[in-house]
From TrEMBL:
Full protein name: 3-methylitaconate isomerase
InterPro entries: PrpF-like
Taxonomy, superkingdom: Bacteria
GO MF annotation terms: isomerase activity
Length: 390
């Protein structure tokens, strides 16, 4: 007999996730992963027998649990939040990364589920993220004791508009690698990449581990659409080798050649270029060069991101504040002197607010790294797990 498990499906920004309660899952990790894979219908390219959407942006998971009273890092939080990137064609779940888009939905979920007392006009939700061991502060607009979903805030890549949820990722700086915002201590590193030779890259860690490279060093303009990037298999292989070399340099894996198997989601790879105009890949229309401070494209789970990841948004913003990085170099002159950075991505423009400072010992402090998103509860009900998996 199939096992019933309560679930909620929520959109957060440009992603969608299945929300499960920690108490409803097996404590044994192997059993838990088997159940989750069955819920999503993985491994299968179409995820036809589960809730997955056959796309990395819709094959995401949020596990919500009670506050960790025995962990001093979680002091003053309302809940724990574990993010999982569920593989589509392989029976694997990546637990090493964090999704900024889904983090917005976590805040709304907490209010809907009564995990935090609603307070109008904005309820601050403090979520302890177990992937990074850090606290996210999520500001959720509230009206009538419930999250406010209607509003005029537009997220490129999402139809319509909604109420803005603000997430501050400042506390996640250095959490993925344990080595600070610049894991190697350098604004630019030279990576020796098999088949490519030496390539300059900036390695950063906030929200998730990231590696940024210049578009021109890859023979690109930085304005290419996701479909064009995905169609170039040789380029995708080269980018994965760069990502693997960065993962090894950052200490995430021991062997760059095994990046796809051991750490498919982190680091996220960003391709950056100076401000330029281009055609939107989603929704039609164009983005003008004067509307952006730089252009950027992402590779996520070995595919080109159709929009721009939330954690990548804040990481790009912080990188633009650090002289010497390839992101700072690409940004419009003077952009690093403003609080807000405008990033041109395939679906439009996304903004982030960043503040950084440097201690006397040279360490970089991130004081602000924000992302604005919208979220919507789509479904709540019961998912039935096949007997063999549950």
């Amino acid at each position: 007999m199939a096992r019933p498990v309560r679930c909620v499906i929520m959109r957060g920004g440009t992603s969608k996730a299945v929300f499960l309660r920690e108490a409803d899952l097996p404590q044994d990790r192997a059993e838990r992963d088997r159940m989750i894979l069955a819920i999503f219908g993985s491994p299968d390219r179409r995820q036809i027998d589960g809730l997955g959407g056959a796309d990395p942006l819709t094959s995401k998971l949020a596990i919500i649990g009670p506050p960790r009273e025995d962990d001093p890092r979680a002091a003053g939080t309302h809940l724990t939040y574990t993010f999982g990137q569920v593989e589509i064609e392989r029976p694997e779940i990546d637990w090493l990364s964090l999704c900024g888009n889904i983090s917005a939905a976590v805040g709304a979920y907490a209010v809907y589920e009564g995990l935090v007392a609603p307070r109008a006009p904005v309820t601050a939700v403090r979520a302890f993220n177990t992937n990074l061991g850090r606290v996210l502060t999520i500001e959720v607009p509230v009206e009538g004791g419930r999250p406010l979903e209607r509003g005029d805030y537009v997220v490129p890549g999402v139809p319509g508009s909604g109420a803005r949820i603000l997430i501050d990722f400042a506390d996640t700086a250095g959490a993925a690698t344990g080595r600070g915002v610049l894991p190697t201590g350098n604004p630019v590193d030279v990576l020796e990449v098999p088949g490519l030779g030496a390539i300059e890259a900036s390695l950063l860690d906030i929200g998730n581990a990231h590696v940024f490279v210049r578009a021109r060093d890859l023979g690109l303009a930085g304005t290419e659409g996701a479909a064009r990037l995905d169609a170039d298999r040789d380029l995708r292989e080269r980018l994965e080798r760069i990502r693997g070399a960065a993962a090894e340099r950052m200490g995430l894996i021991a062997d760059a050649a095994r990046s796809r198997e051991e750490s498919p989601a982190a680091p996220i790879l960003g391709i950056v270029g100076p401000p330029a105009g281009y055609a939107r890949e989603l929704g039609g229309g164009t983005v003008r060069a004067e509307e952006v401070d730089l252009v950027a494209r992402l590779m996520f789970m070995q595919q080109a991101h159709k929009t721009y990841a939330g954690t990548s948004t804040v990481c790009t913003g912080v990188a633009s504040r650090l002289p010497g990085t390839v992101v700072h170099e690409a940004a419009r002159p003077g952009a690093h002197n403003r609080l807000t950075l405008r990033i041109g991505h395939p679906a439009g423009v996304i903004e982030t607010e960043s503040e950084v400072a440097q201690r006397a010992d040279g360490a970089i402090l991130v004081r602000r790294a924000t992302l604005g998103r919208t979220a919507r509860r789509i479904l709540e009900g019961t998912v039935f797990v096949p007997e063999a998996a549950g």
